[in-house]
Design goal:
The protein is mainly alpha-helical and 250 residues long. The chain is built from 15 helices and no strands.
């Protein structure tokens, strides 16, 4: 069975990160068996690894044409559409995934992140909440829902979600930074400074954390500390810090 031999070799090449070689084998499989939806699906995944996103999209579409209930192909095509900027198409495909597999938490998660990207924050919260209901220990779902709450001005709910994300992953740099912003908005300057400290501990070149901590220190009356932080932020490429230095520091 030559087809199976090509499959075996293609999978082995993929494991070894020889994506060009794997693609050649899937090309051969499709030449031998033109309606093999699995071959199109796998070649699409290989093309995605090679950053040929249009080619990947075409292969996932061909797999779906052959097998209209191919959940994984819809899922991967949705991601390719997102990468290519077709957000409406990505939303449509993730909705199809959910129709085919209503308990797939990752489909709700990615659908929620896309809705947040296009400004549908209420829709994002609904989908991310469903993802959390299905898989309650995934920190990124809380993190992204926290961001959506923040855009809606629901800062207490945002804070709760960032707390949960950090409880699940205590090295979550972005969650600490966003929580610092929310705490600052809610008037908890000391808590915000502590979160900025944690961000800098985790990622010493985080320019925004230095800049934000500088602002918080200024509001707390520590102008010397503020100037030191703005200077460090500027060294790291945060150009807006130059204005703060010029206005407040000698």
């Amino acid at each position: 069975n030559y087809t199976q031999a090509y499959y075996n070799r293609a999978y082995a090449k993929g494991i070894l990160n020889d994506f060009n070689g794997a693609k050649e084998d899937f090309d051969k499989i499709i030449e031998l068996k033109k309606n093999d939806e699995v071959a199109y699906y796998n070649r699409g995944a290989i093309k995605a690894n090679l950053n040929d996103h249009k080619g990947a999209l075409e292969d996932f579409s061909k797999a779906i044409m052959i097998k209209p209930d191919y959940t994984e192909a819809f899922f991967n095509r949705a991601n390719e559409r997102k990468i290519l900027g077709d957000m409406d198409g990505a939303v449509m495909d993730f909705n199809k995934v959910i129709e085919l597999k209503p308990d797939m938490a990752s489909a709700y998660y990615f659908l929620g992140t896309i809705k947040a990207d296009i400004g549908d924050f209420s829709g994002a919260i609904e989908d991310l909440s469903k993802a959390i209901e299905l898989k309650p220990k995934e920190a990124p779902a809380y993190y992204n829902r926290g961001g959506a709450w923040g855009f809606l001005g629901e800062y207490t709910k945002a804070l709760q979600d960032y707390n949960k994300a950090i409880a699940l992953n205590n090295n979550y740099t972005s969650a600490y930074y966003n929580r610092a912003v929310v705490k600052g908005t809610l008037g908890d300057r000391q808590g915000a400074i502590e979160d900025c400290n944690k961000v800098i501990e985790l990622k010493s070149d985080h320019a925004k954390a230095y800049f934000s901590r500088g602002d918080l220190k200024k509001k707390s009356g520590d102008i010397t500390g503020a100037c030191a932080d703005w200077n460090r932020a500027l060294e790291l490429g945060h150009q807006i810090s130059a204005d703060s230095l010029k206005s407040n520091c000698r």
